[in-house]
Structure formats: structure tokens, C-alpha cells
Amino acid sequence: ISTHNYNRWKKGISNGSSDQNAVVNYNYIEIGLDDFSSLSDDDWDTDSYYGIEAHDSEIKNDSIIIGAVRSCNSSWAIKANRSTIENNYIQAYMYDNCGDNYNIVIHSHGQEGNKSIIQNNEIKANGNFGGMSVSYADVLDNTISHHQNNGGSITRNMHYAIGWGDHNFIKGNNITNLTN
Fold first, then answer.
1. Mind giving me the DSSP string for the chain?
2. pTM given for the model
3. Which of 32, 69, 80, 94 would bridge 128 by S-S if both were Cys, CB 3.0 to 4.6 A apart?
């Protein structure tokens, strides 16, 4: 799935229902731009970009690339509560941020007795993207990095590698260049 039309919201694979038991494996999703140098003032307002949403599911061996200009809403690459998220390559870049929103690469919240498992992913949370928002999750052996590139501005102080939740087990992650 690939689109380089950057206006309005975009979703790669999405089902917001619970108890899906979906298997979302070996997909390539590319949404937005990878070069912001040719944008005019009229190109600035984009909406939210979403890579994969599937709850109570398995998301493995996918490649997700998100390149957003500016969003006044939240964007994420993977949103999967109570799920296994493993061996994915994720690169997300938000050039600018115009609101009080949260751009998170992985958003996953489990519950007692049904934790999310997030392991062996390569995550590049660039520009105005943070790494993970998780709770009731096992976060194991991921590589999480941030690079300020493409000339964007950091407008929020939210470049967490792993944040916002509780009841997490976090072990063996390699984290570089995040500000918080």
C-alpha cells in the first residue's frame, strides 16, 4: 500500500473493533512524503496518517513508513491493543506539529492478564513523533531512535522512547537520540 498524496487523513490497514484476532503480516505501507523541500505554503495542512490498526491481533514483519507534513490531530504507525507487535520496521516523520496532539509510532495498551507484546522492532521516530505509548505491555529488544532531519521544527517536548503507561515490563531495548 503506497500513497504520496499528502492531503487529508490516510489509513493503511484499519479495523478499530476489539477481539479481531487478525493476522497482519508481511505488508509494506508507505503514506505521505519523504522529501519536504518542494512544499509551498498551501501544502502545509494535512490530517492524520495511520499505518495499521488491529486490536487483539498479531502484527509481524511489516514495513511502515509515514511522512506527514503537519497534523493538528494525532498520527501513529501501529495502534494495536492487547496484541503482539514483532519484527516490524517502522519509520515515521512529522515535519511540523500545529496542535496539542500526540504523534506516536506504536500505541498499544493491554490489560491485566492480556498484555501486549512488543519485541524486536526497528523504530525510527523522527521529527515530531514519539516512540511508544504503552501500558500493560512487555517491551523487549526493540531499537528506538530519533533523528531531527528534513528541516522540520520540534514543537512538542514529547520525544519519549517508551512512555505514558504503567504495568510495563521493559528489557533489552536500544534507545538513541530521544530527548526525554
1. -EE---SS-EEEEEE--S----EEES-EEEEE-S--TT--GGG--B--EEEEEESSSEEES-EEEEEEEEESS--EEEE-TT-EEES-EEEEEEEEE-SS---EEEEEE-BTTB-EEEES-EEEEEET-EEEEEESEEEES-EEE----TT----SS---SEES-SS-EEES-EEES---
2. 0.86
3. 94
